[in-house]
Every structure is written in C-alpha cells, then in structure tokens.
Amino acid sequence: MNTKDHRSSVPYANPPWREKLKTQLDSNSMNHFVIGIIAINLVILGIQATPAGKDEGVSGLLDIANGICIGIFVIELILKGLARGSEMFKRGWDIFDIVVVAIALLASSGPASALRGLRALHLFRVISALPSLRRVVRAFLRALPGVGAIGLLMIFFLYISAVMATGFFGLIHPELFGHLGNSIYSLFQIMTLDDWSNEIVGPVMKTHPWALAFFMSFIIFGAFTILNLFIGIIVSAMQELDILDRQNSSEKKEALEVVERLERDLADLRRRLNESPGK
Amino acid sequence: MNTKDHRSSVPYANPPWREKLKTQLDSNSMNHFVIGIIAINLVILGIQATPAGKDEGVSGLLDIANGICIGIFVIELILKGLARGSEMFKRGWDIFDIVVVAIALLASSGPASALRGLRALHLFRVISALPSLRRVVRAFLRALPGVGAIGLLMIFFLYISAVMATGFFGLIHPELFGHLGNSIYSLFQIMTLDDWSNEIVGPVMKTHPWALAFFMSFIIFGAFTILNLFIGIIVSAMQELDILDRQNSSEKKEALEVVERLERDLADLRRRLNESPGK
Amino acid sequence: MNTKDHRSSVPYANPPWREKLKTQLDSNSMNHFVIGIIAINLVILGIQATPAGKDEGVSGLLDIANGICIGIFVIELILKGLARGSEMFKRGWDIFDIVVVAIALLASSGPASALRGLRALHLFRVISALPSLRRVVRAFLRALPGVGAIGLLMIFFLYISAVMATGFFGLIHPELFGHLGNSIYSLFQIMTLDDWSNEIVGPVMKTHPWALAFFMSFIIFGAFTILNLFIGIIVSAMQELDILDRQNSSEKKEALEVVERLERDLADLRRRLNESPGK
Amino acid sequence: MNTKDHRSSVPYANPPWREKLKTQLDSNSMNHFVIGIIAINLVILGIQATPAGKDEGVSGLLDIANGICIGIFVIELILKGLARGSEMFKRGWDIFDIVVVAIALLASSGPASALRGLRALHLFRVISALPSLRRVVRAFLRALPGVGAIGLLMIFFLYISAVMATGFFGLIHPELFGHLGNSIYSLFQIMTLDDWSNEIVGPVMKTHPWALAFFMSFIIFGAFTILNLFIGIIVSAMQELDILDRQNSSEKKEALEVVERLERDLADLRRRLNESPGK
C-alpha cells in the first residue's frame, strides 16, 4: 500500500497528463460507458445470429455497428496503455481484455469464414467489466490450487486408461478406440455417462466380454473423480465467496463477544489487583 | 412491529367489520377450508387428466366442480381484498394467489384449446396455503441473491457461446446451430449432458474436427457452472432451513455453557477480590 | 431403562422358559447363525438366476435348499413371537422381517410365475441382520422429516405440471402426454435428464414451439428440486452417521482442553484467594 | 520414531553398503530421475497409440524405448529390494509398484494380443512417484471405511434387485434380464440414468405395466444411494485433504490466540497474586 502511494506521487515517473488520464479511465462514468458499449455489442451480435440478422442489408449495418464497438474498445485499451505503460501487463484482467479484443479484431479483419465465431470472443469482456462477475471468476481461480492434485490425477487416469483401451480394443473397434484421440473422446463420453451402454460398452462387450470389468471400474472411479474435482472447486470457491460462512461468522461473532466480555472482566480484575497491593 | 400494532388499532382506518373479516379470513378454520378446497381441486383436475375423465359426461361434471372451486377462490380473494385493501398488494403470497387464479380464470373462460393447460395453474396455490411449503420456497428465494453473480455468469456464458457457435457451425449445421435460438437449445442440451456425443458433437466434429476443443471446454466449464449454481443455492437454502446447523448449534451450546461457567467463576472471583481489600 | 429392567424381572409376566428363549434368540451365536443362513440363501438364489441354475435338476435342488432356508426363518420368527409376544409388533425391524418373509413365502407357494421375483424379497433381511446396515437405514429414515417439505413440494410440482402438460400437449402427443400416468412418466424422465431432447421435448416443440419455455423451466426447477432433496437427505444422514463431524469434534476437543486448563487455572486462583485472606 | 532410529543405527542388521544404497534410492535426485523416466514412458506409449505410431518402423523403435524404461524400473525395484529386504513388502506403495511393473512385464513378453493393453499398466507408477497424487489417493483410501456400510448396502441392493428382476422379467426379456449378469448390467445402467427409459424400462413396461413401480423405486433409491456413497467419500476425503477446513482453521487460530492471551493474563494475574500475599 505504501509503495503504491509512493509510486503514484513521484512526478518524473508519471507526468500530470498521465495521472489525469488514469483517473479518468478508472472513473465510475468511464466504467459505466464501457459496460454500456458491451451491452450494445451483446445485442448487436445476438441480432446478427437470429434469422432476421441474416438479411444482407441488416447484416451489413450490424457489421458496421460491431466495428464501431470494437473500435471504441481498441481506443480505450490504447489510452489505458498510454496511462499505465508496462504496468498494464502485470494486471491479469488488462491482459485478458487485450487478448480477447485482439483475437476478435483479427477474426473480423480476416476473410476466413471458419474464424467468424471468434469475432464474438471480445464479448467476454463483460466479465472483466462487471465487478460481481470478476469476483466469481477470481474465487474459482483461487480454488484451483487446492484441487490441483485431484485434477492432475484425473488427467493421468484418463490418459493412461486411453492408452490401455487403445491396446485392448483398438484393432477390433477402430471407430471407438482406434487411436489415442479416439480413445480419450470415448472415455470422456463414458465419464459424462452419456449413452455409454448403447454406443460404447455394448458393442465392445460383444467381442470382449471381459471388457465389462474394465469399463465398470472406469465408470465408478472416473465419475467419482470428476464429481470430486467439481465439488472440491465449488466448495472452495463458495468459501472464498463467503456463501458458506455467513452462519459461521455470526456464531464466531457471538463467541468473540463473550470472550471480549471475559477479557474486560479480567482486565478489570487485574486493575483492582494492581490497585489493592498499593493500599 | 410497533408500527403494525399501531396501524391495526386505529379505528378510522379499519372499521369494525373490516377487522372482523380480517380475523375470520386469517383464522385456522378458514385456512383449513381453503386447503380442503385445493385438495379437492387437485383430485378433480387429476381425474380429468386420466382416460376415465375423457368421457364427455364425466368431464362436464368435473368442469362444473372445477368451476365451483375457482369460484370459491375468487370469492375468498375478493373478501381478502375488502378486508386488507391496498395492503394486499404488498404481500408477496397474496399477489401470487391473485395472479395464478386470474390466469386460471382466463384460461377456463376462453375457448382456446392451447391454453387448456393453464387452467391448472391455480393449483400452485397449494404452495401459498401450506406453511411448510411456503417456508421452503422462501428459503430458496432468500438464497438467490447469494448466488446471483454465478447465475449471471452462466447466462452470459451460454449467450456468448451460442453467438460464437452460430458463427462457427451455423452455415454447415443449420438444424443444430442455424440461429441464436437453435444454438442456445443445443448448448443447453450439452450442458445437461443429454446425448451430446451422438446428436450434437459427433456430427459437428465430422466437418469441424477442431470443434472438440470448443465443446470439451464448454462441457467442463458449463456443467461445472450449472452444478455450482445449484449447489450454491441448495447449501444456502439448507442453512436457511436449519438443516445443516442442528449438530453445530448443540456443540456451540455446550461451548457457551462452559464459557458461562467461566464467567460466573470470574464474577465470583471479582466479588471475593472486592471483599478482600475491605478487610 | 428402569421400566424395562422392572418388566423383565417380573416372574408372572415372563415365565422362565420365555426368558431363556429370549436370551438365546438375542445371543451372538444365534445372530451369526441367521446371518450365515442369509448368506447361503443369497448364494442359492444368485446361482438359480445364472444360466447354470436354469438346468431343471439343479433348479429343483436349489428350490429345496431355498425352501429349507425360508423354513428356518419362519421357525425363527415363530420362536421370536413366542418369546416376545405382542411386544414384537412394536419393533420396526421385527415387523420388517415378518412382512418380507411372509411375502416370500406366499410368492414361493403360489403358482403365479409373475410373482416369481418376489421369492427373493426376504433376502432384504440381510439389512435387519447386519447392525452396520441397520444403522445406515436408520440414519436415512431419521433424515427424512428434515427434508419432508422439499419432497412434498417436488411431488406437488410433478403432479400439477403433469396435469398442465396433459392439457397442453395431450391431444396432439397422446403417446407422451395422453393422460396423467403418461405425463408423470414423461416428466419424470425429463427430471432425470435421460434423452429428454430427442424423445420428448424435440417432438413436442415441432407442434408447440412455445413448449420450450415450459420444459426449460421444468428442467431447471425440477432437476434443482430433486438434487436438493437428495443432498438434503444425504447431508442430514451423514451428520447422523457422524461422517461430517469427526473433524469438528477433534477441534472441539482441543478447544475444550484449553478451556479446561483455563478452568483449572481459575480454580487454582480461587483456592489461593480463599487462602490468602485467611493469613 | 525411537525404534526406527535404533534399528537403522545397528550395524549387524544393515551393512554400510545397504544403508548407503537406501539413502541414495530415497534421495531427491533419484526420485526426480524416476519421475523423468515415467514422463518419457507416458509420451512413448502415447505416441505408439496415435496413427503415426502404428507405422512398423516407428512402432519397433518405441517398443525398444519402452523396454528400456521397464528395464530401468525393474533394476530400481531390485535395488530397492536389496536395500530394504523383507521390509519392502510392508509398504503399500512398494507393493503397488512391484505389482504393476510385474503385470506390464508379463504382458510385454507374452505374445497374446489381448493383453497388449496391460503393457501400459505400469504407467500408474506416476501416482506412487508424485507425492501430491499419493496424498490424494491416501485421502480417498482413508475415507473408505467411513462410508463402507453405505457401499455394502448398495452392493446388496443391486444384487437382490437383480435376482428379483431376473425372476420377474427374465423369461420375456432374456436380452435385458435373462440371467444374473445381464440383470446387474441393466440395473447398473439404470442407476447411471443412461437411456433407461428407451432401452430398458420402456420395453419391459409394454409386457409388464406394473414394472414401473419396481423401476421407479429402484431409480429413486439407487441413484440416491450411489450419490450418497460418492458424496460421503468426497466430503471425507476433502476433510482429510484439509480443503474444507482452511477457512475454519484460520478462525480457530484467531479464537485460540484470544484464549492464549486470556491464559497469559490469568498466569500474570496468578503471579501477581502469588507475590501480593508475600508483601
């Protein structure tokens, strides 16, 4: 805290115009303006994706409107860059903004129709613009390290199982377990419990009846690990967001009040004791 | 509490007949009568939906019985309106009652067969009539603000992903991702993990092999957010309903008893100390 | 406790043979014998369900062995009845034993092949015979009242939604929503998220595009309520089984140790104070 | 702790070379070397499972590389055996290492193509090599006893239900419930809610309409028990891994600090009291 105050008050590092620009960019009205532009942009790209938006004239107009929105974002980011300099690349959300806007810009300018979908990527700026969403994402990210080992275990489990399944069933069921990619896809489908019996385990069991043992242990352990991973992240994130602790903290407060009363009593007691020998 | 007592005891605001009507409408026997009528109505509309109820004669009789039930509800609400006046529109459950009964009345009187199903909407009055159900719904509603940001994140995530998917796959798979509505439906289906591989991801991957990366991250993040949202609401609601805290509170009570004993000991100690110098 | 001691020591109520029989039936060796018979019976009926057990000779032998097992259970229950008299019908697990054995006996003696499956019902006696399983079931049953209101809400929600869906879609999709039974089945399938899009919501949406709003709110609210109900019961049952509280209780123990040390210090202090004025 | 120190310092039990070998095998650099070999092996078998790895020349080279890796593991285990002697068979992870390497060795040397998949089994050594994964697995294993009874209940429930279903539906639906194995598979599929309506319950209900009661109670109780089992293990494991307790422990720390301050105050008080009478 001290260093920050110091840095921002040193005149030769930050000329007055830079300070002023910084203050204006961080102001509430600027933030509301950006949120407003994102909201308009969300609507524009939404309309363009409806049947009405397919009309050539309408689509052209919406393209221009979208271009103006992206233009505003680019200008805002350039101004931020001028105001903050290299500092900007140390703030996660600023990097996020630069990356999504840059990708959207590239996808818009290029002719490749395959990348058309990426034009909407910069709409995710809505997360960095709204403080409440930023808080949720931050809580998720902080919860990740705590469950990192479970995630790693799941990735190794999926990978090794896929190598084994390719070896077991690859020759006879090439469409399901022909190579590593195929196998990972099939096993991921089994993990989500989507149509596993009819599409995957059923056909394989016709040629390899013992496959049931492999798949049943995979389902039990896999569904179990994935559920574990999710619940672990969720519970950690909810603690971070204080959803779980409201009740506890009120209890803690009560207990602390009692303890404080006790402390006051003790202090009073000590005061009297200090006084009494002086008599 | 004070204001309420005051308001209800002022004679010129509430004439005696109004007070009496209010007391009678809020009485236990009135409540039991309404619950009884709802129970009968639940059975009537249930029978009408069975094959036996399709018989023209039976159906006509049941229609009349249903009409009588709705009539009673209308009279009850009018009496409540007379007794409470404009106050009525400040109580959530009263507004709920008025809305569902009004919709059911409109659907019953109109000839439109499409709206026939709405005739049963007023059966949801069973929630406002039974205190235990009212308590559960209230707990859910109170839990909503705590997880509002997660819900908002999920809606933005679904919307922006749908815009992107329309751009990516819309031209080649119009039946799945042709326009915004289609895309939201398809992505919602993937979120619930229902037949995602066979119906949606499989066909798309045949033309866009790289789609796997898009869908896999969508499944992991989407299923994760929706689960998070649900568990967040549930845990909050259960805390509200005291399901989670029974055990803890008994432990807390024990701990507080010990602390109280300590406090008594300290007070006793201080009393003795107060006495001792006086000697 | 006192009454029990009293009752069992009164000679005219319980003649000596009755007391002796009771002691023997409740003995550990008797319990192990019953568990052994259940284990044998589990294996017998399991073998009879395998292809090897379909052989006529083998099946006949297994039928006889099964009959002997049931015979032993009947004798055990009769002896219990003699020892305990009418008291027996006050103990939940005894009633459970009587009901499942009686149904299995009826299903075995009758010729009806449709009821053949009920012959295995008495195997559920394994739950009442093993104390650890009895404990789990008891914990579940105790958790039920706490979530009863949520269960009631779900039943009303499913029933009223089925009545409404029959009214909305019954005429045009009689195979899905033709009558109340059909509709409840279809909506239950949607609640479990099993193939809801392809089998139910897809066909209905072709004739009633607005049905999406009905089904989406049903899925969100329905899946949500069912998950809530389950998690509520589970968390309550786990608290009952002390799975959740191991950690907490160890922390509580530590805190209590500190408090005890404090109390000892205070008592010591008071003792010295009591002594000091005497000097 | 004391015994261990003693044992390792007794010269006649462990000759110096043995001690030295032990120290070197347990060293960090040795551990990093083994993790490196496992990482290389993960990549080798992964490449072999891709289409590029099917090429005969490449596959031969990868086979040799894999053989070298397994050779290194065998040498490492032999050295460990020399260093630790019979002690080795008391450590769970060492036994795990020996078993998976032995199975992989057998599968590699044998000609049977069916066992080809088992060649990758020793890759699971990654779990015993990485401390963080070892910790997660240990937490799961410790959580098992707490939920053992629920698991047992589920196994009995599935088995007895399968015996009953074979009796009920076996003759008319031999492909679904023809014998015990079939029935367990079908009921397990219903438990995972995978396509239960279309593939299993639908066809059976056409011939046995009353089957709905059997299957609906199976789904509710089955899905419920399996969820319970999983959540029970997960919550216990997360407590073991301290994911749930971070927040609480910081609060506990605060409370303990207050209590410690109180204790110091009391000790100080007692010291003064001890001094005061001496005056």
Provide a descriptive summary of the structure in words.
The structure is a homotetramer of 279-residue chains. Chain A is mainly alpha-helical. Chain A folds into 2 domains: 2-129, Voltage-gated potassium channels. Chain C (Four Helix Bundle (Hemerythrin (Met), subunit A), Up-down Bundle), CATH 1.20.120; 135-268, Helix Hairpins (Orthogonal Bundle), CATH 1.10.287.70. In chain A, 80% of the residues lie in helices and 0% in strands. The radius of gyration of chain A is 29 Å and the shape is flat. The model of chain A is unreliable at 1-11 and 245-249 (pLDDT under 50). Chains in contact: A-B, A-D, B-C, C-D. Chains C and D meet through helix 3, helix 7, helix 9, helix 11 and helix 12 of C and helix 7, helix 9, helix 10, helix 11 and helix 12 of D.
**For the terminal residues of chain A, how far apart are their CA atoms?**
50 Å
In terms of quaternary structure, the protein is: homotetramer
CATH class of the largest domain in chain A: Mainly Alpha
CATH architecture of the largest domain in chain A: Orthogonal Bundle
CATH topology name of the largest domain in chain A, in short, is Helix Hairpins
* Helix content percent band of chain A: over 70%
Summed over residues and divided by their number, the pLDDT of chain A gives a mean of: 78
Largest sheet of chain A: none
Number of discrete domains of chain A: 2
Query: Number of DSSP helices of chain A?
Result: 12
Order of helices and strands of chain A: HHHHHHHHHHHH
Secondary-structure-derived class of chain A: mainly alpha
Largest interface: A-B, 58 and 62 residues
Beta fraction of the residues of chain A? under 5%
Radius of gyration of chain A: 29 Å
Which residue ranges of chain A are poorly predicted, with pLDDT under 50 across at least 5 consecutive positions? Answer: 1-11, 245-249
